[in-house]
Amino acid sequence: MDTITSMVAEKPVVIFSKSTCCLCHSVTSLIRNFGANPTVHELDTMAEGQQIEEALLQMGCRPSVPAVFIGQQFIGGSKKIMSLHVRN
Hints:
Elements: H1 2-9, E1 13-17, H2 22-33, E2 39-42, H3 49-58, E3 67-70, E4 73-76, H4 78-86
Parallel strand pairs: 1-2
Antiparallel strand pairs: 1-3, 3-4
């Protein structure tokens, strides 16, 4: 959990993702289309990716990716982001 806290503290928009996940790619593209430049951490390419994924699950992110943090706050996964987008 401390690792996630320090990773999201560094940038205004952070997405935890997997390089093979189409929902992760879609959410990242959507956020970029709003003009944001998110920092994307591909968990499947990181040495500590499994531990970060487990911490995301403990935080309540189901499934674990994509997990979007804005302003150091956990916003949600793909369902939440798409829901917010539809509601503007």
